[in-house]
Design a protein that fits this description.
Distance between the termini: 104 Å
Strand order of the largest sheet: 3-4-9-8
Shape: elongated
Helix content: under 10%
Radius of gyration: 25 Å
Largest sheet: 4 strands, antiparallel
Order of helices and strands: EEHHEEEEEEE
């Protein structure tokens, strides 16, 4: 046994060189103190707020994709607000704790999430479609066809 403290971690199994548990200096502190950024995110209620969403534009539509594993489609809302703002929101509820359960680590996010996107002028907000498959939400916003300005040739006399 070493007399020098292990600052970067301890081994959960002394015989396994790959079993290093990373040392957490904030272990045992309340979440809001351990993660100063939680003050800016609104604490645990928005722990899932960093839901990552991809937005791509095709010639026909704007397509939004969000990874929402473990969330049912009934728990997600897709809305178009006045002014052409797409809002995707929902909530992942906290897992029910049994009396005899002993948690070793909780890393999955829980709580409410909300993302908003201002849609461009060419979005057909009355034809938005949403589908959920295998934990991936896909929102498709069709685009209006851009009319090319009509060019009329004028004959020059003289």
């Amino acid at each position: 046994m070493s007399l020098i403290p292990r600052f970067f971690g301890r081994r959960s199994n002394d015989f396994d060189p790959f079993s290093l548990d990373v040392w957490d200096p904030f272990e045992g502190f309340p979440r809001s103190i351990a993660d100063p950024r939680s003050f800016f995110r609104g604490g645990e209620s928005s722990a899932f707020a960093n839901t990552q969403i991809d937005w791509k534009e095709t010639p026909e539509a704007h397509v939004f994709k969000a990874d929402l594993p473990g969330i049912k489609k009934e728990e997600v809302k897709v809305e178009i607000e006045e002014g052409g703002v797409l809002q995707i929101s929902g909530e992942r509820s906290k897992e029910v704790e049994e009396k005899n359960d002993r948690w070793h680590r909780v890393e999955r996010s829980q709580g409410k999430f909300l993302r908003r996107f201002r849609l461009p002028e060419n979005a057909k907000v009355d034809q938005v479609r949403a589908a959920m498959e295998n934990g991936v939400l896909t929102v498709t916003v069709p685009k209006e066809e851009v009319k090319k300005p009509e060019v009329k040739s004028i004959e020059i006399s003289g």
